[in-house]
Amino acid sequence: QVQLVESGGGLVQAGGSLRLACAASGRTLSMYLMAWFRQAPGKEREFVAAISWTGGITDGVDSVKGRFTISRDNAKRMVFLQMNSLKPEDTAVYYCACRSALQSDYGYWGQGTQVTVSS
Known about the structure:
- This protein is an all-beta fold.
- The chain is built from no helices and eleven strands.
């Protein structure tokens, strides 16, 4: 089992920055790929970015490219999402997720952290 706890969300003005953090505990083998997703009210969940144990990054939605950066600290079992130049349309609940190298879907999810960007 893996437990994921997100933090760092909040209210920020457009153009501002936030850094989300996700602390993981449990089976390390299940943390091969860690990712951030987001879901805005009334919209489907979006894949934001993912990062492998070795640091390989997979980008998600085009709307965050060049503004959001995913990173991880394997020693601390943490993954981060640095969000710059935030826009009101970035408002959403942001979720951390992970899966093992053998899984095809993300099997572990955090509770989410709210990010609200005011105009």
